[in-house]
Amino acid sequence: MTQQIPLANIITLGVADIADEREFYRRLGWPLVLDTDDFVVFELGGALLALFGVDDLGRDARAMPERGAGGIRSAVIITVDRPEDVDALTDRARAAGARVTKEPIAAEFFDGRDAYFADPEGNFWEIAWSAGDNPVTAAARRAAGR
Predict the structure, then answer these.
(1) Strands 39-44 and 47-53
(2) Whole-model pTM?
(3) Bridge pairing between strands 112-118 and 124-130
(4) b/e string for 3-29 if b means 16 or more Cβ within 10 A?
(5) pLDDT of residue 70
(6) Contact at 8 Å (CB) between 45 and 82?
(7) CA angle at residue 44 from 19 to 106, to 5 degrees?
(8) With DSSP H G I counted as helix, E B as strand and the rest as coil, what are the percentages for the chain, rounded to 5?
(9) Would the CA dihedral through 81, 83, 88, 90 be positive or negative?
């Protein structure tokens, strides 16, 4: 029996206010896949973003919900095709109501360009571009079938 690489392409954010978070991601223009009172899913390139009430997520995982204290604990990276796409998506996020914490600049930890924003509940996203020879970028594109 050979071991399969797991398919891990649904990101679930536990949120306190589903309605506000739903509207934020709608303003970003991300396609809506499923919209119920307590579970919302948007389509991303190669992945899905799910919004689930933090208490429901905690109950489902049999874990204590973490409400956070305003700092960063994790970030989801959005890989873009061109350096100027970092700027364009940062502008779209700001217009949708994001708090931009790092304006688009030359990346500090890799050869490329990046920016960071937080959604209304403080979930962090990094927008990143790097050359195609970057092994992480290449693997992300392969994983997304690009």
Answers:
(1) antiparallel
(2) 0.83
(3) antiparallel
(4) eeeeeeeeeebbbeebeebbebbeebe
(5) 67
(6) no
(7) 105
(8) 30, 35, 40
(9) positive
